[in-house]
Design goal:
By secondary structure, this protein is α/β, with parallel strands linked by helices. A hairpin with a 2-residue loop joins strand 7 and strand 8 (about 150-160). The protein is globular, with a radius of gyration of 20 Å. Helices cover about 45% and strands about 20% of the residues. The chain binds nicotinamide-adenine-dinucleotide and zinc ion (ZN). Nicotinamide-adenine-dinucleotide binds near residues 43, 46, 106 and 141.
Amino acid sequence: MRIVKVPLGNRSYAIKIGAGLLSRLGNECVRLKLGNRCAIITDTNVGRRCARPAFDSLAKAGFSPSLIILSPGEATKRPKSASICYDRLAEHRLERQSFIVALGGGVVGDLAGFVAATYLRGITFVQVPTTLLAQVDSSVGGKVGVNLKAGKNLVGAFHQPRLVLCDLDTLRTLPEREYRAGLAEVIKYGIIYDAALFTLIERDLLKLLRRDPKTLGDVIARCCEIKAEVVARDETESGRRAILNFGHTIGHALEASSHYGKYLHGEAIAIGQVAAAKLSARVLGLSAREVERVSDLFERADLPTGANLNASQRQRLLAAMRLDKKVSGGETNFVLAKKIGRVVWGQRVPDSFIAPALNPQLSTLN
Ligand SMILES: NC(=O)c1ccc[n+]([C@@H]2O[C@H](COP(=O)([O-])OP(=O)(O)OC[C@H]3O[C@@H](n4cnc5c(N)ncnc54)[C@H](O)[C@@H]3O)[C@@H](O)[C@H]2O)c1
Ligand SMILES: [Zn+2]
């Protein structure tokens, strides 16, 4: 088992990464000295496979768990679901010392974390992420929340978990497309922070695609370390944490302008990262060779690297970017790369650069 510490003073916590951790959930919670009652929040896909082991592990360790199983998918991450959870927690008489276990992908993690942040003005929660995206990204950092009709993540809080348990075995049943989408976030950590990680992913991509546990454990641990470091320096997103948004300005706009139907988040940010690499060449002089390495790696991971947009789709994309808080006066703030492993934030890019950077036919721009 690998352990990564997230150093946040009296809210510090550990991320534990390894095989077979789900069956140790109960004992891990005993070590945290939590109250007796708890609730596992999950969705039907994950619940079918993981709810029983999680429940049994908690019960065997002396806890009194209840189980809340929601429908899978982004639509579940809304205030109505939080309200259903509150009622169930109250029925089960959860109190201040009680805790919530978020068992699932980022949807469950964000929702259950938000419920934990708000029920009785905040109770403890433990993250048990079961998608690659959740293990390397959403379960770490304490951002929790739900969507409104007007947009994603519009209601939320910062609420750190007390423990994150990444059981590598749970990833075995993750659908291939979801898994590859998670790899887009993994590659991101190499680009923004760690050239050696990027090179390692280039070398071991086939092992990663096979979900080889040793490679996966090493890579997930390194990604968590990077996220922990970035978050520890900027817990509430005033500056440095922005580097985690590499590829996300365009990625989010692509997701929003296609009404969250066409692309998974990881696919949209794969396109966004390749575009950001091309913009980095144009604005910061990132070398053509490094743009190519970025583009090639996403391509080898079978992720999209560009989008052929017609005029009206281009308009919609720019409009979506303008709604984003990163825009001011016809220019958008981007995170751009100086080289692989080193990025800078707050780079202003004119709107006219965006569409050419998305063009799959153009590998680099001069
Ligand atoms: N809080 C943060 O910092 C943060 C960061 C990034 C993303 N997010 C949020 O995360 C969410 C996306 O998370 P996601 O990509 O994990 O999606 P998800 O939670 O919807 O999971 C994807 C699909 O995989 C299924 N699934 C999950 N684990 C499985 C397993 N082990 N085996 C089989 N099926 C499984 C789920 O039921 C779902 O159908 C978005 O709402 C996004 O806003 C939050
Ligand atoms: Zn992301």
